[in-house]
Amino acid sequence: MGPFRTGTAAAVIALLLALPACSVGESGASTAKTIRLGVDLPLTGAESRAGATTLNGVRFYVQRHPTLDGFNIALDARDDPGGATRDTSRSVLNVQGLIADPQVLAVIGPFDSNVARAQIPIANRAHLALVSPATSSRCLTKEPFLPAALNPMRTAIPCKGAGLPSPVELRPTGINNYFRLSTTDDLQGPAAADYASKRLHLRRMAVISDGEAYGQALANGFRARFNKLGGSVVVHQDILSSKTLDLTAFLQLAKNDGAQGVYFGGTAANGACAVRSQMASVFGAGTAAPMLGGDGIALDPACVRDAGASASGIYATVPAPDAEQIDSAQPIVAAFKKQFGRPGDYGPYTIAAYDATGVVYDAIDRAIKAAGGNMPARDSIVAELAATTGYSGSTGRFGFDAAGDTTLRLLSIFQPGAGDPITGWTWVDTIDYSAAPPY
Hints:
Elements: H1 9-12, E1 23-25, E2 34-41, H2 48-64, E3 67-68, E4 71-79, H3 89-100, E5 104-108, H4 113-125, E6 129-132, E7 178-180, H5 188-199, E8 204-209, H6 213-228, E9 232-238, H7 248-256, E10 262-265, H8 272-283, E11 291-293, H9 301-307, E12 314-318, H10 330-340, H11 350-370, H12 378-386, E13 391-393, E14 396-398, E15 410-416, E16 425-432
Parallel strand pairs: 2-4, 2-5, 5-6, 6-7, 8-9, 8-10, 10-11, 11-12
Antiparallel strand pairs: 1-4, 3-4, 12-15, 13-14, 15-16
Helix pairs in contact: 2-11, 3-4, 5-6, 7-8, 8-9, 11-12
């Protein structure tokens, strides 16, 4: 999925917009000389709030830049509510519809990694660029699923080994057409390890995973990085995911072995934050023995409810920057909030979507100029995006590597309010791997 798991960011953001269920026409401009940007986001369903606030970022950029090199810019925004059910049939119809319109030169989206797996091959055959502000599954762009250096067993886990198609399978033409602004899941475990070691000064940890590929990869990445930083994982266990599972005996063993906290690789739906509640009876109440995890629990009100009074001792990574903590983004954030007005119009991916639209404009601008001022071909947009090395976005200067991943590898750490799902989560730190990955 994307950086926030299904139903997490959506539940945090209070949405006051009413949006159509299928497509949203965004411009009344003449079609005589018009370029359309497709948008594919969840505008209804469990992730509708996150999708709508992401769409607002695209709309805001287009409102500020209604023309480009003499072309009117219009949006064709399509609803893709399949995140919660994993049903990608709508996403296939959406991308096929966008491909059928010759004025559509690129697409902002998708929002979820499972949707991306369905759309990339179809768009690839049509030479249509997809630029996602949110997806984070490594296998969308790179092998392996987990690099050997992030596996305590020192063996790489290929995408097939995690039950996922390889990036090559997703690109039948052999040319990459998929680009994203969020970084990848394999960096979440290391980022939590850096925070645990360097900020919380923890030296001994217990590690649990929910037994699923995503959770195991995060747990393994944490273990490898934590050990490299001089820490020690005193006990490790993969469990069968269940909110009713009692891990009190395991937690007592961890404490007896000197564990100062717990890392849980997995999701709130698979019992991560119920484990946090159980920690209180072993480690005592309060935040002295924290629990860390990934975006499977981050920003999720259900996690806060499951953790109860111990919620404030949770720290969770998100593989994307928090724009409100970046100085260069402040003028854009302020301008957006002034224009849109309502708190519910802004969300975690609003500024990422704004930058995604900006980098697409930049690629189209170069392609138009190369075409002598004429409408460029879709494959020229793909080529220009692939050649992007130093776009100045609101969150920083970035480009795309050979696989289509952003070179601005920022991860955020969030902490929930104490026991109150309504309080929400607060940013506490940013881990920056832009200079080099942590392995």
